[in-house]
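Worked problem 6 (solution included).
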Amino acid sequence: MRVSVIGCGHLGIPHAAAMAEIGHEVIGVDLDQAKIDRLNAGECPIYEDGLPELLSTHIATGRLRFTTSLAEAAEFADIHFLAVGTPIDADGRSYDTGQVFGAARALAPHLTRPTVVIGKSTVTVGTSRDLGALLARLSPAGEDVEVVWNPEFLREGHAIDDTLRPDRIVVGVPSARAEDAVRQVYAPLLANGIPLFVTDPGTAELIKGAANAYLGMKISFINGVADMCTAAGADVQQLTEAIGLDPRIGRGGLNAGPGYGGGCLPKDVRAFTASARTLGAAEAATMLRAAEEVNESRPTAALRLIEQTLGRPVDGVRITVWGASFKAGTDDVRESPALAIAALMHQRGATVTVHDPHAVPTALRRHPELDYCETLEGSLAAAELIVLATEWPHFREADPKALAPLVADQVLVDLRNLIDADAWRMAGWTVRQLGRPAQE
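Solution. The predicted structure is:
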């Protein structure tokens, strides 16, 4: 099939590359000419595991190309994916769908034949209904333009794998014709046994919000329990392994750490909380807001652990933070817990140097007040304490014996419970891990 992907960011670029990978002819659309030029040259403007290779492969074959022209995309494609951003609105609680409706308004005059527009962005319930009415009114094809909502469940750092091998595909469809179009575009994945969950558009919109809100609550729950473990001298790692064996709970996502971040989960929990209030589900809104409050407290909780390890405030201390991206596998630093902790320590008077294998350039744009280092070894120069804040394998695989001579004091606070603490202690390091008892 011929498909377009409108919006070339952390969602759109991986989706376009994956659609080319499963055999479609794909045109990506974005307003940023410089970004389009880079993409057509096979250069990836974001970091995502496996994406640069997939992009260059399908640019070379001609199966994938990019343009700034919606008219060109409309002439070319039979199905249009909307993958534009839906940032949090000025009220801080709901989605700003301006880009979604703006893209639809710009596309509509060029839709002269029956087509299906498939929304991928995360939106407030009712958006697909309103978008369908808008396109039917503004498009020459009228009601032959239908809107399907197909929310993404991508984990940044795993976006390609999650697109090509998802655990499910959710679609909210207005008609049998629209469902048939979806089945055709995803036929290669469905043939591999990927389940297709078909529902009405409103339910599909709520499924995405509910999934991310539940994940946010699960993360906040275990981080709250980690605080209890710290106070009790208990071990959160052993606790999570034990309760994770209960099939009603499960182990996935039950990892204590510095909190959730990124461009999706924080805003999705906020917006779902706001939806609960709007729909009159006050108790649900209270529960969701509690999860947010736990997550918002993580930088302060991390600072408390760091200062307990130091035995003094961070004012005047030289500290290196390992990790800038909100998670491994991506250069996305939006609402990154690692950078929030780094910025808080800087505000408290510490001299903070940040190292990340891929996210230094994006972090520098967001937090120019911090110092940065491109190399692991260089980041340790004169450091009095290391804070491991993003779970890159790059840090797990570091050699504690080789690194020890590079550091003023061999002290490491592992906020991800990532390393083998015993091995580091044997190499002479003092190690503290989140929610785990101190060992001298």
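Discussion: The two ends are 62 Å apart (CA to CA).
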